[in-house]
Amino acid sequence: MTMTRTLGHSGIEVSAIGMGCWAIGGPLWGDGGQPFGWGEVDDDESVRTVHAALDHGGNFFDTASNYGAGHSERILGRALAGRREQAVIATKFGTCFEEATRRWTGTDHSPTHTVTSLEGSLRRLGTDHVDLYQLHLNDLSTSAALDLVDTLEDLVSQGKIRAYGWSTDHPASAAAFAAAGPHCVTVQHDQSVLKDNAAMLAVCDTYDLASINKAPLAMGLLTGATRAVGSDDIRGAAPPWLVWFTDGRPTPEWAQRVTQIRTALTADGRTLAQGALGWLLARSPRTVPIPGCRTVAQAAENVGTLARGPLPADAYAEVERLLADLRRTPAESVR
Length: 335
Fold this sequence. Notes:
Layout: E1 4-6, E2 13-15, E3 19-20, H1 43-55, E4 60-62, H2 71-80, E5 88-93, E6 95-98, E7 103-107, H3 111-125, E8 130-135, H4 142-146, H5 149-157, E9 161-167, H6 171-180, E10 184-190, H7 198-207, E11 210-214, H8 234-237, E12 245-246, E13 249-250, H9 252-265, H10 272-283, E14 287-289, H11 296-303, H12 305-308, H13 313-326
Helix pairs in contact: 1-2, 1-11, 6-7, 9-13
């Protein structure tokens, strides 16, 4: 039986491992030519990847209006045609773009954009509703976010969304949004074996939220990736917040940490990626990791974690022991 979790107090049941759909969006470019995507992608393989996730027991798909300037939503909609009832779809709003040029054009947190962005998402996804609608502006002020609650509640009343949340790494922001929004049921935030956010998990416990874990595999570092990525891949651009990669290759200090915990993560025969995802499942009953993937093999491996379940208690304890030692000399401090 597939391991499931509930999105907060919504009653919406999802597979405990989802699929992040940023990578299948293909290229997106900033004003200065910087990459905001993961490079070129094979759309047919992306469709097969979504199907593989479904066939292995995954039903939760997380995308955003701006991934590939709408392309991720289009491909996800194509893949789910005829299978929409099997899937729980989450998308996001707050970023503006030009579909024709695949250019990021800024942000918009107005109530009007919140509605029009949803209309575009529904059209691209080929559905009449999304299950989870998420504010996609990490550093937006709390007051500006709270101004959207009435609009989001109206969308719930209209049946266009079932619930909503905020993609933010700031616990105080997430707490205020959850306290104000009756149908706020999730927060999406960075969470991995290499980057814990205990304060956010505490907020999830307090407000009965699901913790949707973005970058659960440290953007590929926790798969054991060693190859260099291209200049059209965001990991090759090395924005300040992306500590896992430097000049398109794994940052040595972080790669060393992966090496130090690899044995504990894989002790029961699972792969490194499955171990990292299993750690998240053991970390809290509220976590829902959404590893990105763009090949059938990656989907099968990631969603295959469902059959293995949380990391065993002894392995989890060993990882924690090793990390306690490593955290005394944070890798960020030696970069």
